[in-house]
Amino acid sequence: MEERRSRDPAALGTTPNGGGLDDRSMSDLLKTLSDQTTTLVRQEIELAKAEMTAKGKEMGIGAGAFGGAAVVALFAFGALTACFILALSLAVTGWLAALIVAVIYAAVAGVLALVGRKKTQAGTPPVPERAISSTKEDVEWAKTSAKSARR
Fold this sequence. Notes:
Blueprint: H1 26-89, H2 94-122, H3 129-150
Helix pairs in contact: 1-2, 1-3
């Protein structure tokens, strides 16, 4: 079961049964703080996991596109080799057909390489940016709450 966090400092001044914080013992307050901290840490870890999974998927797609580009580039090299062989041995129109195939394969390899580069860049750097940002917000909120509680 997931608890919802209240970011309203005014909500800290009451207990669930409607009493004020002054009505609770120090051990109750520390237990509540411990429970809330544990819940917060668990939520931040779940956010980091979700973010890293999404980035991993992006990097996987990029790596697959790079692999596809390598295979197609190998085909282009084979066709280009056939083109050179046909051009040197026969010097007829057969080499022109092989050259056209090589150019098409090279164009496909170029497109796949660009897609792979884009997808790989979308997944880097592999850090949970939203989780870090959310944690910083939580720290600032806790500092603000602590300052307002001292007054």
